[in-house]
């Protein structure tokens, strides 16, 4: 059976067995339980995570104590505080597990080594980065131009499984609406 990370990478580039073994040697595997952090606001983030199994959220708490969810992450998704990871500055977000999760991570140093030694992986991450920017742009545009009902319907259309895995209050925090508004949208 093919390793799930290899399947994921080979959606963009092809790898020989030796190349994949080399790539995998740069990663570590960890397991985290529901509610455990992988990133806490204020720390310098040195790892980028690939989700093997589980569901996570990236979020911040504003000055009033309200949670704002920036991103969910499920199987085959990458997640970290990218500004902190790339610039090695303090994280502005926290990331924790909504479910028990299995993750592979690569450190900043190992990612730099890997992309220097293997240009295929540099292309892989460049494509992933471009796709991430597109998704972020679409999320911002949706927040600016779509009604809360339209945002709800788009999220449901694109990620129906998310609604089975994530509590409604988190869906509301992601959409930027109250739990009560979400209940009205849902009916």
From TrEMBL:
Record SUPFAM superfamilies: cAMP-binding domain-like
Source domain of life: Bacteria
Start and end residues of each Cyclic nucleotide-binding domain: 33-110
Pfam families noted in UniProt: cNMP_binding
CDD domains recorded: CAP_ED
InterPro entries named among the record's database cross-references: cNMP-bd_dom, cNMP-bd_dom_sf, RmlC-like_jellyroll
Descriptive protein name: Crp/Fnr family transcriptional regulator
């Amino acid at each position: 059976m093919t390793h799930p990370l290899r399947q994921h990478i080979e959606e963009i580039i092809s790898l020989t067995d030796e190349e994949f073994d080399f790539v995998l040697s740069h990663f570590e595997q960890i397991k985290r339980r529901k509610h455990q952090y992988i990133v806490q606001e204020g720390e310098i983030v040195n790892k980028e995570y690939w989700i093997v199994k589980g569901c996570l959220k990236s979020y911040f708490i504003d000055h009033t104590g309200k949670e704002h969810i920036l991103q969910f992450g499920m199987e085959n998704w990458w997640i970290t505080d990218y500004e902190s990871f790339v610039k090695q500055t303090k994280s502005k977000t926290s990331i924790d597990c909504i479910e028990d999760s299995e993750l592979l991570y690569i450190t900043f140093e190992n990612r730099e080594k890997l992309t220097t030694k293997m240009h295929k992986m540099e292309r892989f991450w460049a494509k992933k980065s471009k796709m991430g920017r597109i998704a972020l742009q679409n999320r911002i545009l949706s927040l600016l131009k779509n009604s809360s009902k339209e945002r709800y319907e788009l999220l449901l259309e694109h990620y129906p499984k998310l609604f089975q895995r994530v509590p409604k209050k988190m869906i509301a925090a992601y959409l930027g609406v109250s739990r009560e508004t979400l209940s009205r949208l849902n009916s």
